[in-house]
Write a structure and sequence with these properties.
- The chain has 392 residues and is mainly beta.
- It folds into two domains: 249 residues, Oxidoreductase, molybdopterin-binding domain (Sulfite Oxidase, Chain A, domain 2, Alpha-Beta Complex); 122 residues, Immunoglobulin-like.
- It is built from six helices and 24 strands.
- It has a five-stranded mixed sheet. Strands 7, 8, 11, 12 and 13 form a five-stranded antiparallel sheet that branches.
- A hairpin with a 7-residue loop joins strand 18 and strand 19.
- The radius of gyration is 22 Å and the shape is globular.
- One of its GO terms (molecular function) is molybdenum ion binding.
Length: 392
């Protein structure tokens, strides 16, 4: 290949939006300001969360880029970007979410290991590219070999892989399913991918934790069993609260794939001052993995004693509560509820139910795990109420 490479230093990093909430600079990991998330159904590329394990890879000449399709395939391929663009283009609106989203709340129960994400380690975008199953069919792969797996390799230089490339895999049955809508994306929100999001090519696996949507893709390999790389076998697994670093057995758990139902409050924020007797708009997002759309969002302003159903929308506030067939199943819904405030102390709580009737756990301590992944507990925001005559 020779033109796409993973540098070993951080001297050639791309420009980033200064409003991002930076959790680490090297490697660069940052999330969106929560209130910015609910401004638009589609997250702008510059504000979309950044999750990296090393310096951002560099490409010298996109015209010389090659993607290798190999492994257990009848006809190995070497494809250029133009070859991929010549295939039928498919777009999918999908939310990508880090498995560690909302890790900071879990770390307040007991210490966990990982980037300290708050509630914004995710974003929703319109991805464009070639369907993965079209590319695999070009290499002669057929559905009858569906018990195999498809491994994606990047040029990302990762210390966790002893300086080797970032890797991940999905079952071949998922890769070959048109309903799964797995694509090799070269566009994001109608524009060419930028470097932070995988330029020139990335995998997008809708409904699955972001770790499987490998960026800076260089190789696709059909293999007999799931990828044996670090991020499949020694990370991104969920253990019970009884497991610690002294008794952990990585082989006892499967790699995380679909993410559970999630529903944080983006506005107002913890500690905000609100005036009694006024009206307040509460806003957030809700999302569930595996193509399971959101059926309902419930909001409480009294700590969970009583509940009201919020309005859900996608696409410029087109409400979907009465039109479930319009729901984009791999995308989040944004929601809002306007309430009249009282003099009582306010604790706003939000929770969601997905189309399979999956619900969220009430208490984060019941799902604590040493890696701090999949915190989907009820989200709570405590507000300070001031008298009606107060000046804010």
């Amino acid at each position: 290949m020779g033109v796409l490479y993973g540098p070993k230093s951080y001297e050639n990093e791309p420009h980033r939006d200064p409003s991002l909430i930076v959790n680490s600079k090297e490697p660069f990991n940052a999330e969106t300001p929560p209130k910015a998330l609910v401004r638009s159904f589609v997250t702008p590329e510059d504000l979309f969360y950044k999750r990296n394990h090393g310096p951002i890879p560099v490409i010298d000449d996109p015209n010389n880029y090659r993607l290798e399709i190999c492994g257990l395939v009848p006809g190995p391929l070497s494809l250029s970007l133009q070859d991929l663009r010549n295939l039928p283009k498919h777009t999918v609106t999908a939310t990508l979410q880090c498995a560690g989203n909302r890790r900071t709340a879990m770390s307040k129960v007991r210490k966990v290991k990982g980037v300290g994400w708050a509630i914004s380690a995710l974003g929703n975008a319109v991805w464009g590219g070639a369907r993965l199953h079209d590319v695999l069919e070009l290499a002669g792969v057929r559905q009858e070999s569906s018990k195999r797996h498809v491994e994606f390799s990047s040029v990302d230089v990762c210390k966790e892989e002893n300086g080797g490339p970032y890797k991940g895999s999905i079952p071949l049955s998922q890769a070959m399913s048109p309903e799964a809508e797995v694509i090799l994306a070269y566009e994001m929100n109608g524009k060419e991918l930028n470097r932070d999001h995988g330029f020139p090519l990335r995998v997008v696996v809708p409904g699955v934790i972001g770790a499987r949507s490998v960026k800076w893709l260089t190789e696709i390999k059909v293999i007999e069993e799931e990828c044996q790389g670090f991020f499949m076998q020694k990370d991104f697994k969920m253990f019970p609260p009884t497991v610690d670093w002294d008794n952990i057995n990585w082989n006892s758990r499967r790699p995380l794939m679909d993410f559970p139902v999630q529903c944080p409050i983006c506005s107002p924020a913890e500690g905000d001052l609100v005036k009694a007797g006024s009206k307040m708009k509460i806003q957030g997002y809700a999302v569930s993995g595996g193509g399971r759309g959101i059926e309902r969002v419930d909001v409480s302003v009294d700590g969970g004693k009583t509940w009201q159903e919020a309005q859900r929308f996608q696409d410029d506030k087109e409400y979907i509560a009465d039109n479930p067939e319009k729901c984009k199943r791999f995308a989040w819904v944004l929601w809002e509820l306007t309430v009249e405030l009282t003099n009582s102390p306010l604790e706003v709580v939000a929770k969601a139910v997905d189309a399979a009737a999956n619900i969220q756990p009430e208490d984060v301590s019941s799902i604590w795990n040493l890696r701090g992944v999949l915190n989907t507990s009820w989200h709570r925001v405590r507000l300070n109420v001031v008298p009606p005559q107060s000046k804010l």
